[in-house]
């Protein structure tokens, strides 16, 4: 299996990086340069975050919260971090005794590097802290040292960057960590010292004397050649998503079929809409032509149905007959529709231009709906009510006209 390991400095712009390509049974290929020069098609991609840019701390969090990486866990370390919790990417690494171990990363930096690498086709990465890539033995701490500064791994899930030291003097941070471990009865038996640069080996005897713990040279160490299975992933949530690797390729045929079906459906809907629109235009033209045939003196035809209804009413009135839009026929229909209502429900009735307005009082929404249904069954059409049509106990105004 091929593994592309990229050193990602979250404080730097994502322009250049150091990298290493590990292949089973082959020599490690290393390089440094712009992101566009990175190898492609690696089966696994690891980001290696420098030790100084990863804060590993202990806290107490509810068990259910361990599954949530991000600002949810960041509130557990709010007093140990600088800035807003939303600016930190916090992951649960594991438990040590009664405490939980959390790793804190800079979220904006992760987003910038993720976007830059995604733009060149490198995705599906794992995030590792340089500290936790160090080898670790029982009852022993591991220290990586470049001659001036370094980082220490003091547990399966724990570690930290150190401050400066020299050949004769170990870093103060390391001494403070040992004092803290002594207070917790967890002082290591020895410290394995790995050099990360040439001529970085300090005075072992002086360091042992000042630290009070045996320091043993463990050889050189480089993040590029660390085992592919070394370390603890800092973004545990990504593990769940690796099961979906390659899912996009398997779903591509189904996506094409779905897109084709949606396209066919859209075309059919457009054709149906155009057909109905043409039928509507043709029907209106027929009604207009029929109206002009009956009333050739009409100047303009805007609404043939309404104009035909009005002309019919005029003809009936000229012949001494009543029309359904007259007051008497409408009041008869209204009386038939509201005869079962309690006395006093109809508060007022007014009529004008073939429309009758009814004011009802003392009805709830169900009662109003019942009145509307009775009016419609009696041959009257009720104009739609406004959205804020009714408040319990308030008057309701209905406008009716002949159907």
Structural commentary:
This protein has 403 residues and is of the alpha+beta class. Among the domains are: 248-304; 322-402, 2-Layer Sandwich (Gyrase A, domain 2), CATH 3.30.1360. It is built from nine helices and 17 strands. The chain has helices spanning 71-74, 107-119, 172-183, 204-211, 238-241, 247-294, 304-318, 327-337, 365-377, and strands spanning 3-7, 16-22, 29-34, 44-49, 55-59, 88-96, 99-106, 125-129, 140-145, 150-153, 159-161, 190-195, 214-220, 346-352, 355-360, 380-382, 396-402. The strands form four sheets. A five-stranded mixed beta sheet has the order 3-2-1-4-8, with no helix packed on it. Strands 11-10-9-12-13 form a five-stranded mixed beta sheet, with helices on one face. It has a four-stranded antiparallel beta sheet with strand order 14-15-17-16, with helices on one face. Helix 4 (204-211) links the parallel strand 12 and strand 13. Helix 6 (247-294) runs parallel beside helix 7 and helix 8 packs across helix 9. It starts with a strand and ends with a strand.
What is the element layout, followed by pairings?
Elements lengths: L2 E5 L8 E7 L6 E6 L9 E6 L5 E5 L11 H4 L13 E9 L2 E8 H13 L5 E5 L10 E6 L4 E4 L5 E3 L10 H12 L6 E6 L8 H8 L2 E7 L17 H4 L5 H48 L9 H15 L8 H11 L8 E7 L2 E6 L4 H13 L2 E3 L13 E7 L1
Parallel strand pairs: 1-4, 4-8, 9-12, 12-13
Antiparallel strand pairs: 1-2, 2-3, 5-7, 6-7, 9-10, 10-11, 14-15, 15-17, 16-17
Short characterization:
Helix content is 32%, strand content 25%. By secondary structure, it is an alpha+beta fold.
Distance between the termini: 79 Å
Spatially, the strands of the biggest sheet line up as 3-2-1-4-8
Please report which band the strand proportion falls in: under 5%, 5-15%, 15-25%, 25-35%, 35-45% or over 45%. 15-25%
Shape: elongated
Residue share in helix: 25-40%
Helix/strand-derived category reads: alpha+beta
CA radius of gyration: 41 Å
Q: Main sheet, how many strands, which sense, barrel?
A: 5 strands, mixed
- The CATH topology label of the domain at 322-402 is Gyrase A, domain 2
How many separate helices?
9
Mean pLDDT, to the nearest integer, reads: 84
The CATH superfamily name of the domain at 322-402 is General secretion pathway protein M, EpsM
